[in-house]
Amino acid sequence: MEIAQQPRFAKPEVRSRDTAILIGYSILAIVFLIAMVFASMSSGTAPVDFAAMTAFP
Q: For 44, phi and psi rounded to 5 degrees?
């Protein structure tokens, strides 16, 4: 019966932490995309190789 009486909504401090985590992951993804763009501009990287690395990590 204790399980049925528990609140179903997350506490506000948990939601704010979730927002910080999502923002952090978004920034990390943007940094990785920028790194991929700079890596693709180096000489010796064929467009086909870059497409294969992107599609098949």
A: 95, -5
Average pLDDT over residues 17-46: 86
How distant, in Å, are the alpha carbons of 20, 44, 45, 54 from that of 48?
37, 11, 8, 10
Q: Tokens 């927002």 correspond to what residue? A: 19
Write down the domain spans for the chain: 10-55
CA dist 12 and 30 (Å) reads 27
Q: What is the pLDDT of residue 40?
A: 74
Q: What is the DSSP letter of 6?
A: S
Torsion of CA 13, 15, 16, 20, to 10 degrees: 130
> Residues of the chain with pLDDT > 70: what percent?
68
